[in-house]
UniProtKB/TrEMBL annotation, chain A:
The keyword 4Fe-4S does not apply. SUPFAM superfamilies: CO dehydrogenase flavoprotein C-terminal domain-like, FAD-binding/transporter-associated domain-like. Transmembrane segments: none annotated. Keywords: FAD, Flavoprotein. The keyword 4Fe-4S does not apply. This is Oxidoreductase. It comes from the Bacteria. GO terms for molecular function: FAD binding; oxidoreductase activity. It holds the Pfam family FAD_binding_5. Residues 1-223 form the FAD-binding PCMH-type domain.
From TrEMBL, chain B:
The lineage of its organism: Bacteria, Pseudomonadati, Bacteroidota, Flavobacteriia, Flavobacteriales. InterPro entries: 2Fe-2S-bd, 2Fe-2S-bd_dom_sf, 2Fe-2S_ferredoxin-like_sf, 2Fe-2S_ferredoxin-type, 2Fe2S_fd_BS, Aldehyde_Oxdr_Iron-Sulfur, Beta-grasp_dom_sf. Signal peptide: none annotated. Keywords: 2Fe-2S, Iron, Iron-sulfur, Metal-binding, Oxidoreductase. This is (2Fe-2S)-binding domain protein. It comes from Flavobacterium aquidurense.
């Protein structure tokens, strides 16, 4: 790690003034990503601002509109095991528990999870060109080893994927990110938080330097009856997703009233396409309809040397997860697959 | 740029208070091993990928390699050196011996601290769930079956303080 100074703050205003809009002043929350990146000299800091004592952002509260507010500093583990989340947003619990390990989930915070960086091997190897780490140096993955890379929304500058599981569920649930900055409060719809790489793959999301995520709001609808999170990876635990799917349905009289499908591991942000969801509206939950929805979601998908398999994998995962959402019991650990 | 200063912190490790002066970028793992000479906690990967450095901070299992010591000022930390009750091994330690739950022993301190943390969390019911919630601790010797057997015995014996 490079040498940096360290300061603890007890409220958001103090954090904002310590950050001072300077990119070399960084927030540390759970530390599970930033400390790793500092060790590799991928991130360099002049000052770490420890926001852990900011107690106003460390809770889960009920909102007047029937939704729930998740504190940015609440840990991933405490969020996944919170009785309200388990009961009303089991899709979110499942997605969080599919990620990382128990120790890491005990440390990781909700705000930090949104801000975690890609796991592209070249991004992690400071001896290779990478536009995300070193803008303008080139992308080593496009012609290189790209098995874990994106099939949707890439640019010729970067084909990295955003690795979070939790955020796939937050995308499906249409969460809102609450932000505080030098100019006051603002919020972003979840779909607007992360961005595609375009010409500036060094920028992962639309949070500005000096801004702080204070909380994440979940709307009332939690799809607690028909939901499923399916994560496909090289080993069955403690591994990032090759492809993951978060699915929620509201079903009335045998037909789909509302559908949500978000994909992880396939793009620079959690991937949602409301056209696929609108297609399923008022239709019966059949294989034919699920297949058609999967086809819409994967429109324009493009593979590279090693990752083209992800297109078919994603299609099958979407269809299978639609069936699993009809019978959420089928996704318990150790349970037999439903198909 | 502000001056890079050392910080005075207090760590309570295995019921002993230590006052130390440290630089902000030093990991809790390095403080335990290099400053306090508690070398039971192991450094495997130093990047959060193996679980060898698992310790309990305020009762919760965490990775000491990804933790800055300065952030744990005032915390109570339990390492493998602190899990036994004097000469009496912790039930998990005893079970590890009975079930041959290690070969080289490098992952063992992390496995034991992680298992104690897991039983305290109380989320794993079945063997599959225990496996899933212990997946953050890798064993390169492949002693996993013995490890899970040991944990299941203690879990089913109902003795997990
Ligand atoms: C071995 C390993 C395996 C993993 N596997 C998975 C996995 O399978 N699935 C998965 O989803 N994740 C996985 N993770 C990633 C893990 O979930 C993230 O590292 C974690 O969520 C980050 O949260 P944190 O609080 O530790 O963030 P930190 O490391 O503290 O911070 C990360 C970034 O967020 C910024 N930040 C933190 N809080 C705020 C805030 N409130 N406002 C603004 N900026 C903020 C920091 O400045 C920093 O840039 C894994 C991590 C490791 C080490
Ligand atoms: S895919 Fe993106 S992160 Fe990976 S090497 Fe290319 S530019 Fe860097
Ligand atoms: S040494 Fe900490 S996880 Fe490997
Ligand atoms: S006993 Fe050797 S690594 Fe586990």
């Amino acid at each position: 790690m490079n040498n940096f100074s360290y300061t603890k703050v007890s409220n958001v205003q103090e954090a904002i003034s310590e950050l001072d809009g300077d990119i070399r002043n960084k927030i540390v929350a759970g530390g599970t990503n930033i400390n790793d990146l500092l060790k590799y000299f991928i991130t360099k800091a002049d000052k770490l601002v420890d926001i852990n004592p900011v107690s106003e952002n460390n809770s889960i509260i009920r909102l007047d509109n029937g939704g729930i507010r998740l504190g940015a500093l609440h840990t991933n583990a405490d969020t996944a095991y919170d009785p309200i989340i388990e009961e009303r947003y089991p899709l979110l619990s499942r997605a969080i528990l599919a990620g990382a390990s128990a120790q890491i989930r005990n440390m990781a915070t909700n705000g930090g999870n949104l801000m975690q960086r890609t796991r592209c091997y070249y991004f992690y190897d400071i001896n290779t060109p990478c536009n995300k780490r070193d803008p303008g140096s080139g992308c080593s993955a496009i012609q290189g080893y790209n098995r874990i890379h994106a099939i949707l929304g890439q640019s010729e500058n970067c084909i990295a994927v955003f690795p979070s599981d939790m955020c796939v569920a937050l995308a499906a649930l249409s969460a809102t990110v609450n932000i505080m900055g030098p100019n006051g409060e603002r919020n972003l719809a979840f779909a607007e938080f992360h961005r595609l790489p375009g010409d500036t793959p060094n920028i992962d999301n639309n949070l500005k330097h000096g801004e702080v995520i204070t909380s994440i709001d979940l709307p009332r609808q939690g799809f607690e009856k028909n939901y499923s999170y399916l994560k496909l990876r090289d080993r069955s635990s403690y591994s990032f997703a090759l492809v993951s799917v978060a699915t929620g349905f509201e079903i009335e009289n045998g037909s789909i009233k509302e559908a949500r499908i978000a994909l992880g591991g396939v793009a620079h942000k959690p991937w949602r396409n409301t056209e696929a969801e609108d297609f399923l509206k008022d239709k019966e939950p059949t294989r034919e309809n699920f297949t058609a929805a999967a086809t819409i979601l994967l429109e324009g998908a493009k593979g590279y040397q090693q990752n083209a398999f992800k297109i078919e994998l994603a299609k099958r995962a979407i269809i299978r997860n639609c069936f699993m959402a009809l019978n959420p019991e089928s996704q318990r650990p150790g349970a037999k697959p439903s198909l | 740029m502000e001056p890079k200063e050392t910080h005075a912190i207090t760590l309570n490790v295995n019921d002993t208070n230590y006052q130390i002066q440290i630089l902000p970028w030093v990991s809790l793992l390095d403080v335990l091993r290099e400053e306090l000479h508690l070398t039971g906690t192991k450094k495997g990967c130093d990047h959060g990928q193996c679980g060898a450095c698992t310790v309990l901070v305020d009762g919760k299992r965490i990775l000491s390699c990804l933790t800055l010591a300065v952030m744990k000022d005032g915390s109570a930390i339990t390492t493998i050196e602190g899990v036994a009750d004097g000469e009496n091994l912790h039930p998990i330690q005893k079970a590890f011996i009975e079930h041959d739950a290690f070969q080289c022993g490098y992952c063992t301190p992390g496995q034991i601290c992680s298992a104690i943390g897991m039983l305290k969390e109380g989320k794993a019911q079945t063997r599959e769930e225990v496996q899933e919630l212990m997946s953050g601790n890798l064993c390169r010797c492949g002693a996993n079956r013995g490890i899970i057997n040991a944990i299941m015995e203690v879990k089913e014996g109902g003795c997990h303080e």
